[in-house]
Amino acid sequence: MNVNELRNFFPALETEIFGKKLVYFDNAASSQRYIRAVKRQEDLSLHCNANIHRAVHKLSADATEEYESTRNAVKDFLNASSREEIVFTSGTTNSINLVAFSFGETFIHEGDEIVVSEAEHHSDIVPWQMLCSRKNAVLKVIKVDDNGILDIDSLTSALSERTRIVAVTHISNVLGLVNPVREIISICHSKGIPVLIDGAQGIVHQRVDVQELDCDFYAFSGHKIYASTGTGVLYGKKKWLEAMIPYMGGGEMIDHVSFSGTTYAPLPGKFEAGTQNFNSIPTLKDSIELFKLLQDNELKLYCDKVSSFMYDALTSDSRIKLYGVPCGTVSKIPLYSITVKGVHHEDLALLLDKMGIATRSGQMCAEPLMDRFGVTGMLRISLAPYNTMEEAQYFIKCLDKAIAMLS
Amino acid sequence: MEGINSNKSLAEVENGIIEDFSMYEEWLDKYEYLIDLGKNLEPYPESARTEDRLIKGCQSRVWLDSKFEDGKLYFAADSDAIITKGIISLLISVYSGRTPQEILSSDFSFIDKIGLKENLSPTRSNGLVSMISTIKALALEKSNV
Predict the structure, then answer these.
(1) Quick check: bond before A268 cis, omega within 30?
(2) Is A29 in CB contact (< 8 Å) with chain B?
């Protein structure tokens, strides 16, 4: 498959912005929708809309089948050992909050410690801070070096007898570097500490096998992998999910309710209170099918070519500083956060927008990391497999023009 | 901190800006003009570059200083981003040196008319939005004096 054939699956890429053809380079914030996912959601909304699980009628049975077959597909996609380990959520943030609450309420006590890295998205910081303030627990932070590489020594020294959980990102949404999560997990496990991986970016760019990784939790969103917004997944090892108290109470998550006491549904229903997003969750099946297409060799080679072009162009320009520099075994995804000497990130993003290019500027929901690098924000360019060499070349030309206008 | 266009009415200045911008058909030309305005913005007094005058946002930061003298409000402002400075320059040319009543008579729609509404959307996290609310709030406060 070539890139133009792939682009046919994403009609939004044909949009015009300010009279220019859209160049969508904000994929790390949200990818464009895969046409089959859009069609499935529409089809389910129009022809298969009924609340799932409880009703005996045919429409509900069909909707339930769509929803539950998605769980099987996700289980296979992640190579989880059972479907009970797949919990549907509204997105990564929801998944992490679920763990911070349910794991936290079950296992965290006063004086316990939780470890995160300084390259985390706010969604993998704030839920833990909230937990710490509820429980009088302590949040400890692993450092990254000047290249953005996670400092494994600082992980080792952050761990103590009181560490109850470690939460790190698979790939930082600012640095784009693939963290050595297997190594992190094995270090933590050697001390009996469970690990949550924020997979919001990781799932997009890495093939994730949760058994091989041996992570305890893996969280990701559907909208970054071409599926519908409001869809997300929490993978959790059965032993943890079974031991954790529920996150929200309500319909679906119960076994038996009475005023003298309520018992909860078995996994995964225990963590899926209330009406689920049953018209959208099944679009994850389309994403999974799309990932199979993306394994195409021709496409992969093309993506590598575009990525190398971008990396070389950005790193060979002395006006530009790139954050997240790959080195040794640490690889980088096509995500480039930069600053330009004497030029504000917002100005760059505004001018690029007028040239039809969508990028992201600001703190990228990672204020501590901005502080770490001493900047108020960055300009982030994030590519997807449907982005072309022509777009990359056009971007570099426009960036140059924008810098000239602003200097 | 002066009223730049005190000899013209507020509405006249607004209309003049709308006219200036109507000459530019290309978006980039409009922004080039804003960048120019930003570069030529009257320097912000260093003594007023204080934490309490700083409006932080996810995007550009804005420093805003104001004074009320002889029944008129005067503004000085600065930003770390040049396009924001350009818009600041427009806002100051319209609103600085005006009475609270004059400011309150403006609906701030000239920003929309020159196509910069997106830069000032309340959902956008930048200092400009706060700058406008501060100008409005000060005008309201002083009109009750």
Answers:
(1) yes
(2) no
What average pLDDT is seen over chain B? 87
Q: Which of B23, B28, B58, B145 is catalytic?
A: B58
Judged by a CB distance cut-off of 8 A, whether residue A326 touches chain B is: no
The span from the first CA to the last CA of chain B, in angstroms, equals: 22
Active site residue B58: yes
Helix (H) or strand (E) holding B79: strand B72-79
Structural element, H or E, at residue A192: none
Q: Do A376 and B61 touch (CB under 8 A)?
A: yes
What number is the ipTM of this complex? 0.89
At the top level of CATH, the class of A38-289 is alpha beta
pLDDT of residue A302: 98
Assign domain B10-143 to its CATH architecture.
Answer: Alpha-Beta Complex (3.90)
Distance (Å) from the alpha carbon of A402 to chain B's nearest alpha carbon? 10
Average pLDDT of every residue of chain A = 97
For the ranges A288-292, B131-135, B137-141, the maximum mean pLDDT occurs at: A288-292
Q: What is the pTM of this model?
A: 0.94
CB-based contact (8 Å) between B99 and chain A? Answer: no
Q: What's the rounded mean pLDDT across residues B79-96?
A: 93
